[in-house]
Write a structure and sequence with these properties.
The chain has 150 residues and is mainly alpha-helical. It has helices spanning 10-24, 32-39, 43-55, 80-87, 112-128, 132-135, 139-146, and strands at residues 59-62, 68-71. The chain is built from seven helices and two strands, in the order αααββαααα. Strands 1-2 form a two-stranded antiparallel ribbon.
């Protein structure tokens, strides 16, 4: 049975992957180059994502020759719901959620917006119960899968 559902932007998907990598390398700094190589993602794209995660307080950036990224707080204190809310804040689930750009002619009489709003709230409630530590459970296995054997 094929499951379908909400689709996150690649920006959010990659942000979660970067956080998982940092959680799996606790005590070490992760470079953009390492993450880009491990996941096969553009360095430039990851740089934008990392900057956003630093601005939001999920990651900490260490500058310099031996610099890199690390979690700004323990993985057990980073809620997945908070990460996704932050990363997806400019990507409305449906057009009518964005009042400034909504062109749907039936929006004033349609109840779909309210249905989706309730469903989205339920989605976030579930994610708010989950921490980064919950999803980054097997760091050694992940390192092996990503080719990071340090």
């Amino acid at each position: 049975m094929k499951k379908t559902g909400m689709r996150l932007t690649s920006f959010t998907d990659y942000a979660l992957r970067l956080l998982i990598l940092c959680a799996g390398r606790e005590g070490e700094l992760v470079t953009i180059a390492d993450a880009a190589t491990a996941y096969g993602i553009s360095r430039n794209h990851l740089m934008k994502i990392a900057n956003e995660l630093v601005r939001a307080g999920f990651l900490q950036s260490v500058r310099g020759r031996s610099g890199g990224l690390r979690l700004a707080r323990p993985a057990s204190r980073i809620r997945i719901g908070a990460v996704i809310r932050h990363m997806e804040r400019e990507s409305p689930l449906v057009e009518c959620f964005a009042a400034a750009s909504n062109t749907c002619v039936i929006a004033p009489a349609c109840g779909l917006k309210f249905l989706f709003a309730d469903a989205l709230e339920d989605f976030y409630k579930r994610l708010d119960k989950t921490t980064l530590a919950d999803i980054a459970r097997k760091p050694l296995q992940m390192r092996k899968m990503l080719g990071i054997l340090q």
